[in-house]
Amino acid sequence: LARMKGARRLVPLKVSGAFHSPLMEPIIAEFGEVISNFTFHPPAIPLIANVTAQPLTDVDSIKEELLKQLRHCIQWQPSIEYMTHNGVASFYEIGPGRVLCGLIKRIDPRVQTFNISGIEDITQLENSATSN
User: Fold this and answer.
1) Are 89 and 108 in contact (CB under 8 A)?
2) Between 130 and 113, the higher pLDDT residue
3) Per-residue confidence at 104, pLDDT binned at 50, 70, 90?
4) Which molecular function terms from Gene Ontology are attached (predicted)?
């Protein structure tokens, strides 16, 4: 399929699903119903949209973005660059692994990255924050 669409090279990704692609289309309506059951509040700080790499400040835009990012490619590098150009110097990856921390460091080696994959990481982060 990739060759038929004109791809010159194919790099298989080690992910559990076809996230951020048209193959997610069948679940968009169901996911929309799920998020409609949650109460959203305006964010205290802007969220950066993964699809457009632009800030979102209102609840409706955030809900729309959650649906869009299922089906569309995300703009990872522009999102990180937007944040660093606007003063963000620390990034926190929550979950197992350090893939996102590594990608962020490639984009801007000057930023600090932290991985939180368990309770011990939270304790260590709290201790380092209080000692600085």
Assistant:
1) no
2) 113
3) very high
4) [acyl-carrier-protein] S-malonyltransferase activity
Cβ burial of 106 (10 Å; 0-12, 13-18, 19+) is exposed
129, containing H or E segment = helix 119-131
Q: Which residue has the tokens 């809900």?
A: 63
Cβ-contact 51, 68 below 8 angstroms = yes
pTM of the predicted structure, to 2 decimals: 0.79
Give CA–CA dist 80/101, Å, rounded.
11
pLDDT, tens digit, 9 for 90 and up, residues 45-100: 999 999 999 999 999 999 999 999 999 999 999 999 999 999 999 999 998 888 89
Asked if 89 and 111 count as a contact pair (C-beta separation under 8 A), the reply is: yes
The tokens for 74 are: 């995300």
Tell me which DSSP letter residue 69 carries: H
